[in-house]
Design goal:
Layout lengths: L5 E7 L17 H8 L2 E3 L9 H10 L3 H4 L19 H7 L3 E6 L24 E4 L13 E2 H4 L1 H14 L6 H5 L1 E2 L8 H16 L6 E6 L8 E2 L34 H4 L2 H31 L6 E7 L18 H4 L3 E4 L8 E3 L8 H8 L22 E5 L12 E5 L3 E6 L15 E6 L17 H21 L29
Parallel strand pairs: 1-7, 1-9, 2-11, 3-4, 3-7, 4-5, 6-8
Antiparallel strand pairs: 2-10, 9-10, 12-13, 13-14, 14-15
Helix pairs in contact: 8-10
Length: 506
């Protein structure tokens, strides 16, 4: 009997698509570069909702936000019974895998965002679970190990540093960052790495294949860099990127994150990019320890490895920082796979791929069937879609849901269609809709909107149709409930009033 492949899913938070040494010569990411050299790197990968919570829900269910109902950071599915489909860990647990979840999943949201919503959360398919925060009423995964209980002193020191940058680290102070006085192994990422190593060393069941999900918080702001990692870089390799002249309004014009980069000095902006790069090197080092442990325990050759990030960071592009927009720095992500089933080495795959492709890919790598209702496809297949899709329904943390913005992207062009206001305001205000169109070949920073340019009307109309059909195709797959029509059937071979409500699915 052929031994089933183990699965190692490596995850970062807010890592840009070009924050890899194999893409950008300035970066120092030897572990991920080596992974790409023995596998496949997807150069055109995008997330499906460019903010933390909905992106991770989408990635771990294999559904778009508009199918799932989690569309921005103040939405979550509290009860397992309300999940529309099984999440990835549960699918693999049901298939006989030993499942370990180490780090951020963002199933549940902290009390600052969702006050008064107590959650006795399940581990959602993870048999072993370790979390880098403190247990609280609405972030409480029963039976899990929390850093706040295992190493309370280390967590308190890390939290004190993070508090300087404010909520989410999305502030001038958060982007200026600092050199931490806490050693690498005592940062949250160091603690999470030790939990992953402990699982591989002592908690792994040799009688079952394993699924290990290791999700680190860095390089998310605030940029608190452990000692030594800034020394890998030269400030001269990071030129200043001053804010451009005001850009005409778009789908997120006027966001507070447009005010952070202009408030920083040229030296602070350069140092910010250096520290961001240093944190990418730090998480790369953590991943290297785990991959080396796989080698030590004799499981590397039988482990399918997937690496991705939940979204990017504008990091000064268009004068913006963070995510919450459908521009390149925010929506594009690194994505690499290697190991059993990957029969190519050192290949750069330019297909339009998305994070909804993660679930189908991992299921195929694990020898499982891929449900037809999922809108993504396995990256181990030869399927090629025409372009990639992403969506926006808010600016991050808001009490209401904004009207949607939808992106359809190819390597050459990007179309963004959007509506103004709240979702429920005079719905549907279709006549007020607008758009953005960028030539990614000639205008990679997306500074010149061609949406109203008659010379590009054919491109705009073609991509509008592609975006519409892409969304329709996804909705045609899920939610799917076979129609059961109550009919009156008469005739010599049937009884009157036969009911077809309970007809079997076909």
């Amino acid at each position: 009997m052929t031994k089933r492949a183990n699965i190692l899913f490596l995850m970062t938070d807010q890592q840009r698509h070009d924050a890899l040494g194999c893409v950008n010569r300035v970066m120092r990411t030897p572990t991920l570069d080596a992974l790409a050299a023995r596998g496949v790197r997807f150069s055109q990968a995008v997330c499906n909702v460019p903010m933390c919570v909905p992106s991770r829900y989408s990635m771990m269910t294999g559904l778009y936000g508009f199918q799932l109902g989690v569309k921005h950071n103040t939405q979550m599915i509290v009860r397992d019974a309300d999940l529309p489909v099984p999440v990835l860990a549960q699918r693999l647990a049901d298939a006989g895998y030993q499942t370990a979840g180490v780090g951020k999943t963002h199933w549940y949201i902290g009390s600052r965002i969702m006050p008064g919503v107590p959650v006795a959360g399940s581990r959602r398919g993870f048999e072993v679970r370790a979390i880098q925060y403190v247990r609280e009423p609405n972030n409480n995964e029963v039976g899990s190990l929390y850093m706040g209980e295992d190493e309370p002193d280390s967590l308190a020191r890390v939290a004190a540093q993070a508090q300087k940058a404010g909520p989410g680290g999305e502030s001038v102070i958060g982007y200026i960052g600092e050199t931490s006085d806490i050693p690498p192994e005592r940062h949250r990422e160091g603690w999470l790495t030790r939990q992953a190593l402990r699982f591989l060393d002592r908690e792994r069941d040799p009688g079952r294949p394993f699924f290990l999900y290791l999700s680190l918080d860095d390089p998310h702001v605030g940029l608190h860099v452990p000692p030594g990692f800034e020394d890998l870089y030269d400030l001269g390799d990071f030129p200043d990127s001053p804010p451009p002249d005001p850009i005409p309004g778009g789908h997120v014009h006027g966001h507070r994150l447009e005010q952070i980069w202009p408030q920083m000095t040229p030296e602070q902006r350069r140092r910010s990019r250096l520290r961001y790069a240093a944190l990418c090197s730090y998480v790369d080092d953590c991943f290297g320890q785990v991959i080396e442990k796989l080698r030590e325990v004799g499981e590397l050759d039988n482990t399918f490895i997937l690496f991705a990030s939940d979204h990017g960071d504008m990091l000064g592009d268009r004068g913006r920082v963070s995510k919450y927009c459908l521009y390149e720095g925010s929506v594009r992500v690194p994505l690499i796979m290697a190991g059993p089933g990957v029969n190519r080495a050192g290949v750069v795959d330019d297909r339009p791929v998305e994070l909804v492709d993660v679930v189908p890919t991992v299921l195929q790598a694990a020898g499982q069937d891929v449900p037809e209702a999922l809108p993504g496809f396995s990256l181990l297949s030869d399927i090629r879609r025409e372009g990639s899709c992403a969506e926006m329904h808010g600016r991050g943390y808001e009490e209401y849901q904004r009207a949607p913005a939808v992106m359809f992207r190819t390597a050459e062009w990007k179309l963004i269609l959007y509506l103004p206001g709240r979702l429920g305001d005079s719905w549907p205000p279709v006549g007020q809709g607008s758009g953005e169109l960028y030539s990614l070949t000639d205008d990679p920073l997306e500074l010149h909107n061609r949406y109203g340019d008659p010379a590009h009307a054919a491109v705009r109309e073609r991509m509008t149709a592609q975006a519409l059909l892409h969304v329709m195709g996804a909705l045609g797959r899920y939610p799917y409930a076979p129609a059961r029509t109550r009919v009156r059937v008469t005739g010599p071979e049937t009884k009157p009033d036969r009911s077809l409500w309970d007809a079997p699915d076909t």
